[in-house]
Design goal:
single chain, 615 residues, 72% helix, mainly alpha
Length: 615
């Protein structure tokens, strides 16, 4: 093993140690309300059998298709059940692997794009850049937010693919075929972790333009099969991504009302993402971008000119400094899915720059390296080496302290959204999720305050309108509840949960016919959903239609025999309304036998059985 190999192993070990130390204080963090649907309430991760894995990799309409992320949760659940400690540990592990692959990718990219320097220079750039990447506080959301596991998984496979490509392009024959095959496999795994990895072929083209200049056509001619396969993967998953976004309501109306206005907003998003990496101090789970209104203004013109100027400088640098060209366009290409060209609900988020921050690491690494190698007759030979090292340590320490502090903000839902609302009070996301926190705490009047603000900021936020409807219903304001739920259903007509919430408002208001009508509509679409029959049974019981209630509860118990609630309610119905002691005992006993894990409920049912038998 060469001396350089030992050095690389040592650096990898240090990177893993740095990642572990910086994120150690996140291991005690709880789930946030952003994690609930993906982990805490997700039944698909609780089955690691071959059948469970097959289901994870099966595309289902209306669900995000990120099966590698789901598989990682299933493995976590197998070992840790719902203990968040283990999930955080896994995320940190994959982040450490990502940082290691960034180190190797930086070194290989520097070797390919900076031919006029020594091998030590490439090593220093990789060293400076990878440690700044590891410590950058913009990555806290990707690592500490458990539902963002997709970022660190995608990051590892994306940079693994990039490194394998950079190494493979220097080989020939059978070895090259193996390398390129592994690249395609890694790209596929990155895309199955998060579909935004579809931009990988664009990254390869940008690199080849930087490395070859006018020789790009020769590269395409010689590698048409590889590029064709890579582009095919990208096209398939781009179609999947767009379909998932459309089905889930992720594609929003044009900002400003038309395509041109929406496109101009993309320039804001691009520059604000640069700001996240270079100038932001107060990181947050939610941001607001101060877009000019009307969009055609001097401010917008300044944004467009600034972006085009950076692009122009990068193109100008292609001939003499191709690495700078690559940094700019790598950043642009990897941000394309998030620049609002296809309008999305969130314009700016820390996680969006996770892959793109490789450009920051490369660029800043080169800046430190230039200072490190600089010589001037007025200064001693080692002055600039010490200066570069001192500035690097200052930036690294600053990043590290911000990262450790930011981990504490992600401690739980309340700390997260209280911080976001304080920093960005005009953020729809921050207000919407702060409202959800107060809903879960049962503080409905406080929840209304934030949810109303969220809807005011973003009128088509159907989820906040749905939550407002729930809270208004609990506060005894059926008129407001029905209005908000009806609007939410108009915005998202395929969402059956909203219809169920509306039926509950009608039920609570004594309008049983309307509640029944809605539930029957939903049951017609999902005739095997036991919960819907259970809800309809409770509705009939409350309305005094006990025979119909018994029929619906019986149907629910047949569809979900291992759920204790239908058996319990049937027992209650026969004991209190029909006066049939034997039947009541039968259903209570069936509930005890069929749902052995519901320990508290079972104990209650045993007492009921004993009381009935003693009569």
């Amino acid at each position: 093993m060469k001396k350089g190999d030992f050095r690389s192993i040592g650096i990898c070990f240090l990177l893993a140690m740095v990642a572990g130390i910086l994120y150690f204080n996140s291991l005690g963090n709880l789930y946030t309300n952003w994690d609930d649907g993906m982990i805490y309430q997700n039944p698909s991760i609780r089955n690691l059998s071959w059948e469970g894995i097959r289901k994870i990799f099966t595309f289902e309409k209306g669900n995000t298709y990120q099966p590698v992320r789901m598989l990682s949760y299933a493995v976590d659940y197998h070992f840790w059940k719902l203990d968040p400690f283990g999930y955080h540990l896994t995320s940190i592990f994959f982040y450490a692997l990502t940082c290691i692959m960034v180190f190797f990718s930086l070194k290989a990219a520097s070797e390919g794009l900076r031919k006029d320097v020594s091998s030590d220079s490439h090593g220093r750039i990789a060293l400076f850049g990878s440690f700044l990447f590891a410590a950058h506080p913009v990555h806290v959301e990707a690592v500490t937010w458990l539902a963002a596991r997709k970022e660190v998984l995608q990051g590892f496979f994306f940079f693994l693919a990039f490194f394998l490509y950079l190494k493979g392009r220097e080989t020939s024959g059978g070895r090259k075929v193996i390398y390129l095959g592994l690249v395609l496999l890694s790209v596929l795994l990155a895309t199955l972790s998060k579909p935004s990895a579809v931009v990988f072929p664009g990254v390869i083209l940008i690199y080849e333009i930087a490395a070859r200049g006018k020789g790009i056509s020769e590269f395409i001619r010689r590698h048409w099969l590889f590029m064709g396969c890579a582009i095919a993967i990208s096209l398939v998953f781009t179609a999947v991504l767009i379909k998932v976004m459309v089905d889930a309501g992720g594609v929003k109306p044009y900002r400003g009302g038309d395509f041109l206005s929406n496109l101009l907003v993309s320039f804001y998003a691009f520059l604000y993402n640069i700001k996240l990496l270079f100038f932001t101090i107060n990181y947050s789970a939610a941001y607001t971008i101060d877009v000019s209104n009307p969009i055609l203004s001097l401010k917008t013109l300044a944004m467009v000119i600034s972006t085009l100027s950076l692009a122009g400088l990068s193109i100008w640098s292609l001939k003499k400094r191709p690495a700078y060209f690559f940094c700019f366009f790598f950043f642009l290409v990897t941000l394309l899915p998030y620049l609002n060209i296809i309008p999305i609900s969130t314009l700016l988020a820390d996680r969006y720059v996770f892959i793109a921050s490789f450009s920051y690491a490369f660029f800043v690494g080169m800046v430190f390296e230039h200072v490190y190698r600089f010589h001037h007759p007025r200064f001693s030979a080692g002055f600039f080496k010490i200066l570069a090292t001192a500035i690097f340590l200052f930036v690294f320490t600053s990043h590290s302290l911000m990262t450790i502090y930011q981990n504490t903000i992600w401690q739980n839902s309340y700390t997260l959204w209280a911080d976001a609302v304080e920093k960005y009070p005009k953020s729809n996301t921050a207000n919407a999720l702060m409202g959800v926190v107060y809903m879960e705490l049962g503080m409905d009047e406080k929840a209304v305050e934030y949810l109303e603000k969220a809807v005011e900021l973003l009128p088509y936020d159907y989820q906040s309108r749905n939550n407002l409807g729930i809270v208004y219903g609990r506060l005894g304001q059926p008129g407001k509840a029905i209005k908000e739920l009806a609007t939410a259903m108009w915005l998202q007509p395929e969402n059956d949960n909203m219809k169920i919430n509306l039926s509950l408002v009608y039920q609570r208001n004594g309008e049983y016919d309307k509640a029944e009508y809605i539930l029957k509509q939903v049951i017609a679409k999902a005739p095997k959903n036991a919960n819907l029959y259970f809800r309809l049974g409770l509705l009939y019981r409350e309305a005094g239609n006990y025979e119909a209630a018994a029929s619906m509860l019986q149907k629910a118990s047949e569809l979900a025999p291992h759920i204790i609630n239908p058996h319990e309610e049937l027992g209650n119905l026969y004991a209190s309304r029909f006066g049939d002691r034997e039947k009541a005992i039968e259903y209570y006993t069936r509930g005890i036998e069929m749902a052995p894990k519901a320990k508290e409920k079972i104990e209650d049912l045993r007492w009921m059985v004993q009381d009935l038998q003693a009569q």
